[in-house]
Amino acid sequence: MATAVTATVSFSSSKSSSLSSRTSIISPERIPFKKVPLQYRDVSVGGRVVSIRAQVTTEAPAKVAKESKKMEEGVVVNKYKPKNPYTGRCLLNTKITGDDAPGETWHMVFSTEGEIPYREGQSVGVIPDGIDKNGKPHKLRLYSIASSALGDFGDSKTVSLCVKRLVYTNDAGEIVKGVCSNFLCDLKPGAEVKMTGPVGKEMLMPKDPNATVIMLATGTGIAPFRSYLWKMFFEKHDDYKFNGLAWLFLGVPTCSSLLYKEEFEKMKEKAPENFRLDFAVSREQKNEKGEKMYIQTRMAQYAEELWQLLKKDNTFVYMCGLKGMEKGIDDIMVSLAARDGIDWLDYKKQLKKAEQWNVEVY
Predict the structure, then answer these.
(1) Fewest C-beta in 10 Å: which of 115, 238, 275, 313?
(2) Is 260 part of the annotated catalytic residue set?
């Protein structure tokens, strides 16, 4: 370590009181220094007692950049913005819920020609056509990307979304349609779509191919997890081969609302040791106590196992969907953590700091 020492030397004898020498030894390089308190010490020099007062300055420790546990390297954000969106085309748009499902959900694929270089876990913005009630262009809406970086066609030139059509009745008894969701669900192949992004780093996948990845989704919150799972189990990469455990919990109201069910079941057949799949169908399933099977109810059946996994430093939890789902999961973990003398909410903060607890809810 480079140092600079400035010392004042004085002899205790009165005969030498006029003798004073000041010596500076300085590193030839200009570097930042950090001062430390003055140090006093008596030493013997040639039989005389010498009092030395020295101030030593040392190089300030360099700041070490925190290395992310996620696949952040080279991630692009905000390449396209609302004032300069990318215009893609709808290539495919198909309903993926049953006719008796409470609401429609559609899977759609758009061309990007590789111009929106997204990663698994990111989102894109969509600016619907038309103007609002004030005569201004509609504002963008963000949607989690439902395809891997290679895209559904495997050529890195498309992006896929999973969108639920929003239709509801307001207090006045009027039917209200969500602007962007209905715009998207009504698209026909060939139609142009203005997109922005990609955005977001919260939901990026972990780097560790041996990690345990616990995915908690409700409804269209499944989108980022479909992107993870395609990369893990349907694709081959020279620099990535998943050897860990992927455990998906998906909560929906009815069986006809289960999204991408056939895809996930194929993954489970392909990699039974690496993929676990649990559905929670609230209107059709109940637990042993007769309670409706919400996602937290299903997780409670594996509570002890999940808690043991959460104590490992290579377990990553990702949550996407309705805002209220996190509280239900907290309720499960509080008592489990308490048995080990751990405050769950404090522990969750540590997990968040370590990038092991990742939430995107709406």
Answers:
(1) 238
(2) no
